[in-house]
Amino acid sequence: MLRKLSAQAGTLLIGAIALVFVIGAVTVLDLGTPRRMGPGAFPLIAGGILVILSIIALVGDMKADAEHLKIDWRTVIPIALAVAGFALVTPRFGVLPGAGVCVLIASFAVGRLSLLRRAGLVIGAVLGVWLVFIVGLRLPLEAFRGF
Amino acid sequence: MLDNLALGFATATTVSNLLYCFLGTFLGTFIGVLPGLGPLAAVAMLLPVSFYLPPETALVMLAGVYYGAEYGGSIASILLNIPGTPSSSITCLDGYPMAREGRAGVALLMTALASFFGGIFGILVIAALAPVLADFALLLEPADYFAVMLLGLVAASVVSSSGTLRGVMMVTLGVLLGTIGVDVNSGATRFTGGVQDLRDGINLVVVAMGLFGVSEAMYSARGASASYATEKVSWQRFLPMRGEWMRSLGPAIRGSVVGSFFGTLPGTGQTVASSIGYAVEKRISPNRANFGKGAIEGVVVPESANNAAAQTAFIPTLTLGIPGSTTMALMIGALMIHGVTPGPRLISDHPQLFWGLIVSFLFGNLFLLVLNIPLIGIWVRLLRIPHYFLYPTIVVLISIGVYSLDHSLFDVWAMLGFGVLGYVLRLYRYEPAPLLIGFILGPMMEEYLRRAMLLSRGDPMTFIKHPGSAVMIAISLLLLVLTAMPGLKRLAKSIN
Fold first, then answer.
1. Is the C-alpha dihedral spanning B385, B387, B393, B395 positive or negative?
2. Do B173 and A37 touch (CB under 8 A)?
3. B424 with A10: CB under 8 angstroms?
4. pTM here?
5. How close, in Å, is residue B421 to chain A by CA atoms?
6. Does B166 touch chain A (CB under 8 A)?
7. Considering just the CA atoms, what is the radius of gyration of chain B in Å?
8. ipTM for the complex shown
9. CA distances from B219 to B93, B392, B470 (A)
């Protein structure tokens, strides 16, 4: 049973999100009246529908023993860390160092690369970002900070 | 009508408007060619630039970016089998096999011509239909607007590749996420968990880039390292074989008609247009046996359909103020920043803007044709960039793109969160595209629901008493029942 349920983690996640909205709407927000619907009414309706649909999907998939794909940690972790790296480095050192760190970490998601190619990728991407966003589009971004 | 077109020509042919139209289509194609980046990303990235332009010019440029990127997306589909946008994924089906056979040149030329044909067809439909629809829209009441959006959401879910039930679930999840932030009617804060950055709700671009950009990179970065055989492409032959010209005309017309129709329905848009166009053609074409193996019709139909739809998507956007797609939602954002409210009065209040935009579409499509036939070589060189460069670069581009919106790191973290969510959803066969439509239409839907209920003094029967809304709700229900039927039967059987 437990293994069957874990195969439905996606549906369970959606159901759980929906439940959070329903509980939030009922406990914190004003539901109002049909004539003057309060801020909680619409989320309650939508959340309620989603909870019901999640249950239907759950039952259907468990009966059918639906398959799901496996997580590929080799791509998920580098990509997630790359975005996180950008968010951590940029406020301290500026956009270009942030971009460099981001592309360096993300490059570990695509498989084996020689040192030379990896370096080329990082330099090329940083140069490209500088040309496109700062020189070309003239977005008010701080290229370097704190140097 | 002629007066209007003359006004449109006068607006569209000023030097600066022509220049920005050209610039827009060029940049759009450039960004669209890069796999993983589509019109949404292109428009989002160039949105800040348009703030400094007069409203007509800004819109003309963004529209150029939009359909330029749409076209660029097909190039990546044909050569690499990676669609730049979901809507060009259908083009992969036959475009990529053609490229494998060394007929990439033919596929690209036919794509350019079919896109042009579909685009022009769509423009004629807008010019004829939009003013009529705008007059009609003045009669619509909140209940009707609510029903239009409901129909849009249902349409978006039933066409989802993961089935009706999952489609509806994704749409509803999007609607729920759209309620986060301050409620405009009561001023109450909803579901922010006390986080200040959530008070204005989650930025649409953040959701879109997370669900599609980040999760796409997580999903495909490694698969991408397989092999792209761009080197094998032969560029000697651009011209299709003699019989193929004639065989393409019918599909181009049918594709344009299907595309124009689905483009005007909010919530459906180009992806639906090209997939339905392809499905129809696959049934009726005498050459159907070759579909999926490099049939020229399989390139012509989706391309004419998605470009016709790209144009007609402006109809609900401009006349009702209802964005048919995520990219259109950004267009509405651009209009509002310039103080123009899209809706039934837009055409009469800002005829210059409306007709100028329509005529600029004409020039934009012409530029695309001119740009693309001689410049195909340049776009192809862009694709020669080694594959392992692509996904890391895309991750950087979208991170900076999201950061540059508001200089908010919260947005970058939120994008990461949506990336993970999108990845998990995909693992469990939930295709996230309908979520975004729900996210856009949800808040508007709530607004109209509340207004309609207020007007009817709390009587929900108002949705059935208004003929317009009654018809649309009936169609929505019918769509749901028809598409959910096989699944329901299976469920009932498995329970018994």
1. positive
2. no
3. yes
4. 0.84
5. 9
6. yes
7. 22
8. 0.94
9. 20, 13, 42
